[in-house]
Design brief:
single chain, mainly beta
Length: about 375
């Protein structure tokens, strides 16, 4: 990724009426006593912070008039200065200017676009579609170059840098299908290399070791995490998630061997030892979370939830964590992506069934 300088621009397509609301709301939501700590945990709860010391500061927002339903996941094309967002329930691809946040294009014609994978070497964007064939687009012109016939229900993915391959979840209850699969796919040609089967109708996010043999994946309807050997495609371990139900979003601090699992019933952030599966710490997390992001530079975890805030948890050691802020966002703001080079966190606020305006918010990330 190339570094960029950001300017304070206000294009006509952008709206900022929520800026003051979110800034004022921050102090009220950065409260103490919201994290949970067991006797064995070294986690401590958040202390209040004012806007001047906030780890995230709202920098702008863009509107999506007429958008209905949920957004899904983002991808970044740094060299092309573009941010892509899957318009899951509006069957479109959203294209934003990465520097200004302005909406450049809303591209219709998809089925159920869930996840996006940008290929910098070929300047291509794979749109993983759960209903129609998944297209590979020219990232500059957005022309369709080819399509991959992935199984129905294609949704979340993980990238394995050691092979250059993707692992993609397919099947499940949305198809509807009583079981799920995780496929190893070569993104260059769409060829399926391995299939891992799960006797579960809801399998969610995964984390892939870049310097090791394992894939960690949340088997959501069974309340456990599966550990898969990449070479054999076999499930080698299963770890129950005991603190709550419906483990879904997942992030990974590979250097410190820590997994960040978010549950939805109720909302909790659970930190696991990636070697043993043991719980290191747990916190209350926003409800209806669809993304958890690990920031290795600032040693932070960002948990974006549809409840209307992002929980910020700081790591001071592999077994020591504290929630430092609850940053006000909007109801439905539950997916996000971190642009580490630009020091910005992008958050998609889905209108869902509320009829509210669909928005993308961006926050400047303060260094520790």
């Amino acid at each position: 990724m190339t570094s960029r300088s950001f300017r304070n621009e206000s294009p006509a397509s952008m709206r900022y009426p929520i800026h003051a609301f979110l800034t004022v709301g921050f102090a009220a939501l950065a409260v103490a006593g919201c994290g949970h700590k067991s006797a064995s945990d070294k986690a401590t709860n958040a202390a209040s912070a004012d806007a001047s010391t906030a780890p995230l500061k709202l920098a702008g927002s863009s509107d999506f008039p007429g958008y209905k339903g949920d957004f899904d996941h983002f991808a970044i094309d740094a060299a092309g200065n573009r941010l892509f967002l899957a318009g899951e329930e509006h069957a479109e691809l959203e294209v934003l200017n990465l520097a200004t946040g302005a909406v450049e294009k809303r591209m219709p014609g998809f089925g159920v676009p869930h996840s996006l994978y940008f290929m910098p070497n070929t300047n291509e964007l794979l749109v993983i579609d759960g209903e129609k064939p998944s297209p590979v687009l020219d990232a500059k012109t957005l022309a369709v170059k080819r399509t991959y016939n992935l199984p129905k229900g294609a949704d979340s993915y993980g990238y394995d840098g050691s092979t250059g391959h993707l692992w993609i979840v397919t099947g499940g209850k949305d198809v509807p299908q009583k079981d799920s699969n995780m496929l190893e796919v070569d993104p260059a040609n769409g060829k399926v290399l391995k299939t891992v089967h799960f006797d579960a109708d809801h399998v969610e996010a995964m984390a892939i070791e870049q310097n090791g043999p394992n894939i960690y994946i949340n088997v959501t309807d069974k309340n456990y995490m599966a550990v898969v050997d990449k070479a054999s495609g076999k499930i080698v371990k299963t770890w129950p998630i005991k603190e709550a139900e419906q483990n879904a979003p997942l992030a990974f601090d590979e250097a410190n061997r820590r997994l960040f699992v978010v549950t939805r019933k109720p909302g909790k952030l659970v930190v696991l030892n990636a070697d043993t599966g043991a719980t290191v710490a747990s916190f209350k997390a926003p409800e209806r979370t669809d993304q958890v992001v690990w920031d290795p530079v600032n040693k932070r975890v960002y948990v974006t939830g549809g409840e209307g805030y992002t929980s910020v948890v700081e790591q001071s050691g592999p077994d020591s964590y504290r929630e430092v802020a609850q940053v006000k966002t909007l109801p439905g703001a539950k997916t996000s992506i971190l642009d580490s080079d630009a020091k910005r966190l992008w958050v998609a606020a889905s209108p869902g069934e509320t009829g509210a305006m669909g928005k993308v918010l961006w926050f400047d990330v303060a260094p520790r």
